[in-house]
Amino acid sequence: MKKTLILGATPNADRYAYRAAHMLTAKGHPIINIGIKQGEVANVKIEKPANPYQDVDTITLYIGPDLQEQYYNYILETKPKRVIFNPGTENIEFEKILELHGIESLEACTLVLLSTGQY
Fold it and tell me: Which of 82, 90, 106, 113 has its CA 20 to 30 A from that of 97?
């Protein structure tokens, strides 16, 4: 199981981040919800970004490139094995930074990866 940090978590059931949280937990992957909205998703509280986690396999992004820069250090300090850039979050600049730090970057859809057994 791959502990996954969802950056851009939201309690809004119409959002893909919400769907990803539920699908990840249904497939047995523990999640950490990080976002600016209050509430919980898939029975996991949404937290504000504070101290980086150290045991995260994957960070899946649900925030656009214009908001990502403020989280660069947080993500790098979390030291995930990979970062998934979901559709609309692609950021070539940040992908290069991640790769320089030995972190895999993947332009993909978390929901599709989970649905096809490629997660």
Answer: 113
Residue whose tokens read 């290069």: 96
Pairing of strands 40-41, 82-85: unpaired
What is this structure's pTM?
0.96
Cβ-in-10-Å burial (0-12, 13-18, 19+) of 9 comes to buried
Q: How many domains does the chain have?
A: 1
Q: What is the pLDDT of residues 27-47, one digit of tens each?
A: 999 999 999 999 999 999 999
| SS3 call for 80 | coil
Domain that holds residue 74: 4-115
CATH code at position 25 = 3.40.50.720
Is there a contact between 63 and 87 (Cβ–Cβ < 8 Å)? no
